[in-house]
Amino acid sequence: MAYGFEVYAANGTKIIDLADRVSRSVASGTTPTITSGSYYDVSITDMTNADDWAVFAYANTPPNSLNAKNVDCTRNTGYFRVSQSMGVSSSFDYIVIRTG
Amino acid sequence: MGYGIQIYNSSGRTVLDTDRAESLLYATSNNTAVGNTDFPVTGWSGSNLIIARPASSATGTQGYGGFAKLGRRLYDNKWGRGLTAFPNNNNGNGGGYVVWRELKAQSVSSLTPANFGMVVYDGTGTASSDILFSATDLDVTAKVVATGKFNGTAGSNSAEGYYQEFTMDSSLDKGRYYVLVSNTASVYISGSSPGTSSRFNFNYQFNYSAGTIRMLNYYAIGSTRAAMSSSMDWAILYVLNGGSVDDNFS
After folding, report:
1. Most buried pick, A48, A95, B215, B216, via CB within 10 A?
2. Which of the following CATH numbers is that of domain A21-98: 1.10.10, 2.60.40, 3.40.630, 3.40.1350?
3. B202 touches chain A (CB under 8 A)
4. Which residues of B are less than 8 Å from A13 in CB distance?
């Protein structure tokens, strides 16, 4: 093979192939409490808005109302931003992964 | 870089790079769950990366066209899709359930690598927390097959709502497709009169018959849907070597 590598499990099943897009853990944590109408930025070295990054964030104390939909998480150069207007304050758990 | 190792896949994406302190994610424990139970399970102390899929029999009567909605009801941290949690006896052919797995970094798995195979460390030492990759500790893996944001424009303002649609590879086992559910959300609010109940969906909808997964992004009042655009990420993964847990269609 000209590039990449292959990994086989002990039972002989190939579990990483030449073309596979694997994911790696970059960071995880919890933001401080964010008040409604505000945002919090988390610095991540090398982060861009490209599709080889993904951030999964969710409120720890969302309201039981339709306002729970008013959450955004945007990736930017060197950081991601969690913003919310849920009508209540909440911290957010987040996980950052990279696939490229 | 002056030393270390970099591995790329055939598309040029990085698989491993010792210049980055990024440890490989792999699939570890698996379990099942039903609607209205704690996400992912009562007393969970594992990682926050949970991937899931419906049981292969989940083609019941609830949801658009009987498709299986899958996600997390945030306000009480339970499996569900708003009012009627998925799955229940109505949408699992009489007994549906969710199959879920934990994704975990090798660096936080307290691994003790074997004295053979390849182990790559991050350059700060050889403790288990320094592991970026350990081949002999890999058994079940999950490769990323699609990512995006909950901002689809396909669909309509009728029952199906708005979504993006992913088509499973028909040559692969549909039971090995999982979605990342940790940041999914749905809410249902009962209206004061019939036809005024409202809800929103940032979650997934499986259709094993058609071989599709939809990423839903809509708000609804009564029977009318409106598209919502979110910057929240979604991901679809394909689990390899999951054994009998996932070999449902092959």
Report:
1. B216
2. 2.60.40
3. yes
4. 240-241
Smallest Cβ distance to B25: which of A24, A62, A74?
A24
Single-letter amino acid, residue A25: S
In tens, the pLDDT along A41-57 reads 999 999 999 999 999 99
Domain extents in chain B: 28-101+143-244
CB contacts < 8 Å between A and B, how many?
Answer: 160
The reported pTM is 0.93
Lowest-confidence region among A2-6, B139-143, B166-170, B211-215: A2-6
CB nearest to A58's CB, from B14, B108, B182 = B182
What ipTM does this complex have? 0.93
Q: How many CB atoms neighbour CB A34 within 10 A?
A: 19
Buried b / exposed e over B141-153, threshold 16 CB at 10 Å, is bbbbbbbebbbbe
- Give backbone dihedrals phi and psi of B130, rounded to 5 degrees, phi first: -95, 0
How far is the C-alpha of B227 from the C-alpha of B153, rounded, in Å? 7
Interface test with A, best of B51, B77, B143, B184 (most A CBs within 10 A): B143
Residue bearing the bigger pLDDT, B73 or B101: B101
- Three-state SS letters, chain A: CCCCCCEECCCCCEEECCCCCCCEEEEEEECCCECCCEEEEEECCCCCCCCCEEEEEEECCCCCCHHHHCEEEEEECCEEEEEECCCCCECEEEEEEECC
Q: Which of B107, B141, B180 sits opposite A56 (nearest CB)?
A: B180
Nearest-angstrom CA–CA distance, A62 and A68: 6
Yes or no, beta carbons of B141 and A22 under 8 Å apart = yes
The verdict on B50 touching A (C-beta cutoff 8 Å) is no
